[in-house]
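Thread: "does anyone have the structure for this chain?"

Original post by V.I.:
We have the sequence but no experimental structure in hand. Need at least a predicted one for the grant figures.
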Amino acid sequence: MRPRVCQKLGAVLLCAGTVCAPAQQPEAQLARELARENDHAGAALEYRRLALALPDAAARGGFCWASAFEYLRAGDLATADRMLNRAETEAPGLVLPVPLLRTEAALAARKWDEAAFFADGILQNPAATKPEKNLAARRLATAELRKGDVPGARTGLQRAPDPATASLAAVDAYAQGRDKKPWLGGVLGLIPGCGYFYAGEWANGLRSVILNGLFIFGMVNTAQHDEWGAFAAITFFEVTWYTGSIYGGLDASHRYNRDRLERAVGGINGAATFAPDPLKLPLVSLQFSF
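Reply from O.Q.:
Generated one for you, tokens below.
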């Protein structure tokens, strides 16, 4: 395991070549408390209210960015995007915090090309620091891998200033593995349980074998004793379980492929993340963790 490393980066608000660093706003205490309580929608709304109340454009931009950050954590991607637009308008100096957050939003929205675009822009920006580029390289690799471009994911990680050994190992492990074929899982599902076995879901496979076996036994037994009402009921349930075995084998293959990809993405990113220092807002000072 790599040790957890925390690094801080001050992303100041620039106005005509000078640094505008508004003093800490005591009014932001409520927003900070809401964020600590995981009420991210409430924190976002409070930061948004603070942005409207301030006369300084740079400070408004900082709070708009913080609002977008909390909206993203709340899962409201559309509003987060609107707040980022406002942050860019109010504080053009946020040339790196905005694309960093846009990258996260694009990944959350499953817009892989858009996420790769913003991450690549950060890597090409000479003003970006090592923590920013290290994070952007991981996010770029994530977007490329989700698009199915394994070489692109590897190349993205190689652009990180610091060696991304664990992340590269995750990509290599993914490349060495093989996806399951959903159509083959469905065909094997014609034999109860085999579709699940193919995808490595042994418990589901055994359950399918046992239940289908019990229903088939019940069908044979009721037919031998001319219990046709019970036979019809058992047959109905057996048809349901049998078709479920077929579709289950197909779904199990999809789950296998999805889980394999998620493990690789998790290995690429590890604990890599960032967040603003809430005590410094509206000055956007980012804290990075790897």
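V.I.: this helps a lot. Residues 1-23 have pLDDT under 50 and may be disordered.
O.Q.: and The radius of gyration is 26 Å.
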